[in-house]
Amino acid sequence: MNIPKIPLLFVFNVITFPAVASHLLGGYLSYRWVSGDQYEITVRLITDNSSQVSGGDGTLDFGDGDSQTAGFNVSAEEIDNDASLLTFSVLYTYARPGSYEISYTETNYNLGIVNMEFSGSTPFFITARLETGSSVSGNNSPRLKLFQLQRGITGVAQRINPAAWDEDGDSLSYELIVPREATNRQIQGYSHPNDSAVYNDHERGNEANDGIPMYSVSPATGEILWDAPALLGEYVIAFKITQWRRIANDWVDIGENEVILINHIVDAPREVSVTHSVSQCFDDILDVNGQFLIDAPASQSYTISVFSDLEGALINSTPVDPNEILTFNTATTDRIALSLPSGVVLASFRLYRVIITIETNSKTVTASWAFAVGCESLPDDVSPPPIIREETCDELVVYPNPSHTEGIEICLPVVMDEPRHIRIVDTTGKLVFEKSVVLSTSTFELDTGTWPSGLYILQIDRSAWKFLVQR
Length: 471
Hints:
The protein is mostly beta strands.
């Protein structure tokens, strides 16, 4: 794409597209299992409040040859003076198990997007892949807990993380993509935000002015780093979320979502900064600690929104519920700290995150911290498994925990030729499983498909481990 660097914004401003709807600033699809092969499919769209187009009048394709156009029951929530969030849901039943690419198309992106040619006439297209069948029955796609219009400042590194959360406990990985305008067609004339075409001095485009600008996503936390924006205006950011589930000792790709975000870059002073915690592995739950330090002007007060997928943990002494966003105020706190009370059940080899956002007058300030217990390292690519498992365990481990599947895997620190006595009780002390087995490997699989939801205690010899079964 050959776009002159200096007159770029001017060219977009003078081009017009008569009778073309132009209003969309982001969106994604999600699905929730209802029963059998019936799913509730939800579309979320961010629209420009200055547009005369109401939005939500596109086509929802269910991926099996059937579709629905308009007639949706759309609800609108104003995010701020510039944008609104539109949401609607449709119940749909598939005739048979299979792999389905659900998609939603609407006309069009907002006019004048910097890293896309002719955005005002480019169809807005989002997808979600749904896998159905016995091994993934009842799967739900991840939802974005901090989905909003993003803002950044020229010359200042920006971090973005809409906090994807999977209620089934599946592992998630993230990958930057080129957005599409149809099922088999990428947008022509799209450039990643750090492309040389949208910089006056690309060789010194980062915040330190000593190197080319970076644009990357952490496959583990989902945090996108753009270091740093240059030209004013709106940019399209697109990424893919992949769900991974351990089935028959293998990590299996069981679904994905493609997400579109618009990032609005302005020229303004930096109002708030956050010192990031370093993502890391811990040997033991007792070693877990981390916090964010926030520097905000004393004369102004901003709301801090906090998400964590570690249920039962404490954020600034407030219990975490992944379904809710905790809010604090920079006028009353200068730090966000995580602590783990004794009752928290922490699964080994699973990634946990704390994500915060602060909306200032001109910028979305985001910080992400991730940790895991019992792992060798956090991943540096998107290959499964998202958390690298050791071949053996330093301690007794039950995985996955919580378990939403039909079974659990028990990992033992020592393999022995002599019988091991395995015993499982519920919280009332009732015995639900007991067996003596000889283990030739460090892992042992147990079918829990008929067990009711609840907390269980596994006992092997003198070791014990708590785990949850959730249906």
